[in-house]
Write a structure and sequence with these properties.
2 copies of one chain form a homodimer. In chain A, 39% of the residues lie in helices and 15% in strands. In chain A, strands 1, 2, 3, 4, 5, 6, 7 and 8 form an 8-stranded mixed beta sheet that branches. In chain A, strand 6 and strand 7 form a beta hairpin. Chain A starts with 12 loop residues before the first helix and ends in a 17-residue tail after the last helix.
């Protein structure tokens, strides 16, 4: 990787690596605090990368008019479609369907009950026709009736063996390398990074620390009601029920942010209309703000979709983001690589 | 303060302060990593203090059989009666009643409606008779119908002027000095400290960072439903409604811990039966565990109450704690001082 930062972008690469000039420049830059290797090497140089680097520089420059104290450097990220892939459908939906198949032997009644019947007989057209309602049924049936600890193990076991239908890689290796770098870069600048996802909180927490460096207590998501029960052995357990507790999507995202974090983010990144209210809530605070949207424009390396997509539709937020000058990470234009090439994130995290 | 640590407790004070021996000892202790001034100076020496120091030493000793990685050093504290005073009644209840009086002019209908009528006419016997149901009415009426930001300001304004009826001090100065030291000590040992309180999350968050060093995102509490609304000016607001969302008390505490933190604590401190399930949940994990209970035994300096108290009843948890050998912080016996003598925590935090 060549050594380039926002402050060096005006110089040609040759001038940077020409030893005497380069060394002198770096020494000077080190004194002024600007010298470092590119913190976002997977982002192509351009307006998007510059807007990120500029924002972070502004809010972290002591004495500057946009300086933000460390405690208030809250950054929130959607997960599906923002930190990892969400096609051909949400990975949690694929998990739920795999689980339906896995536990079908304990549910003989499913053979005659839709949408289970369709899924078990391989009628994917009927499954698709059942839409979100069908999906909710799969999730309810597979995300309840066990302890939180058991569910944690089930998720990790699935991630260990399941492979993405197109890429044939573990799902946790289909995270976006540029976003991993962004998370690391923000944390290096004393941001606290949070996930704020419509996905299930219990589905994400088992692996977010290993894959994203985001610990469970910084994951906000949708949840079902959990019940405290005293086991016959005198050991308490937390049991997952099928009752919905909280949907962390759309207007639920600012609500979830307020409930879990209790501070307004100064930096938020999403990719769909489900993130619009989180971006609006972030934008409405005082002082410097960063609102980012991942735009899936790369059918070759990943997927291309926005206004018409059944998953991760980006329509209203696309209009509002364009109108208000939010930052778009255009996958094809801005991302040098999409997925990590190393095996660092492949396979599932161990508990 | 004399320099004493768990490792020096066997020595007489004189031997510590006798210069040559003391200096040599401290130098040696520094090399072995044990040297520091007493981290808990407001705790009297004895079994309680020793159990805290021993536990922290065990879980932080690299290579020891009880070593716990930093990420898993989760400590949860009840608030009312554990970190600050809760008599003659929960401070949040006093806040709600003050607010009823303050906004009564906007509610002429309260003059003829109980329990408001009783409170506004000063009939405290009738207020007491209305019990918890009356209190819920006061809270519902005063904790809803405004934005989260406005409520934040209302709480801070009240804390700025309100004084405790007996001690005539700001409520935020009626925190327990020994517990402040314990929080600091745990954080110095890379614990992440959380509040897990039956109190309202929006009532605590405006001041916990300044008073306890616990940021809003590490406060778990009871909450009402909050609604995202787009204002006429195009600015989004989060409005507090009177609908109960979550009661973080009793069996709700492990549920709240799981939902907000997503890890089981290894260290928990409470003071009443409302903390029993949190303590049981903490105790049921694998590895070293610390379960602590503040026992209010000091009517002179604070209050003395347990099994019969209408606030902070300690009955079942007292029995279970005694039977299972949990640690009791006996206020009279274990605490050298109760409240901070400095003005560091007096007055309310500014937003």
């Amino acid at each position: 990787m060549t050594r380039q930062t926002s402050s060096t972008r005006g110089l040609s690469r040759r001038s940077i690596i020409a030893a005497p000039v380069g060394v002198a420049f770096l020494a000077m830059a080190a004194r002024t605090g600007f010298a470092q290797s590119d913190p976002l090497p997977s982002w192509n140089d351009g307006a998007t990368k510059k807007s990120i680097l500029d924002f972070v520089a502004r809010v972290t420059t002591q004495g500057g008019s946009d300086f933000v104290p460390v405690a208030e450097r809250i950054a929130t990220f959607d997960n599906d479609g923002t930190l990892w892939c969400e096609q051909p459908m949400y990975f949690q939906a694929l998990f739920a369907m795999d689980r339906v198949k896995a536990i079908a032997p304990q549910h003989p009644e499913w053979k005659d009950k839709e949408p289970f019947k369709a899924l078990l007989s391989g009628d994917m057209k009927a499954v698709a026709a059942a839409g979100e309602k069908g999906l909710v049924a799969f999730v309810a049936a597979t995300h309840s009736g066990m302890s939180v600890d058991d569910f944690h193990r089930i998720v990790l076991a699935w991630l260990d063996t399941a492979r993405h239908p197109r890429f044939q890689r573990p799902y946790t290796s289909l995270v976006y390398q540029p976003m991993l770098e962004l998370l690391t870069y923000l944390r290096a600048n004393n941001f606290k990074t949070f996930i704020v996802s419509g996905g299930g909180i219990d589905f994400m927490r088992p692996w977010t620390e290993k894959v994203y460096g985001i610990p469970p207590e910084q994951v906000v998501g949708s949840s079902g009601v959990t019940k405290f029960e005293m086991g016959a052995d005198g050991k308490p357990v937390l049991m997952k029920t099928a009752e919905v507790e909280f949907v962390d999507d759309g207007p639920g995202k600012p609500v979830g942010i307020n409930r879990f974090i209790g501070r307004r983010p100064i930096f938020a990144f999403g990719n769909s209309d489900g993130d619009l209210e989180m971006l609006q809530w972030t934008a409405a605070g005082a002082g410097a703000r960063f609102m980012g949207i991942v735009h899936h424009t790369d059918a070759e390396r990943e997927y291309a979709y926005d206004r018409q997509s059944h998953v991760g539709r980006l329509d209203k937020a696309l209009d509002e983001g364009l109108r208000r000058g939010w930052t778009f990470a255009d996958m094809k234009r801005d991302w040098r690589v999409i997925f990590p090439t190393t095996s660092a994130t492949s396979g599932a995290a161990k508990p």
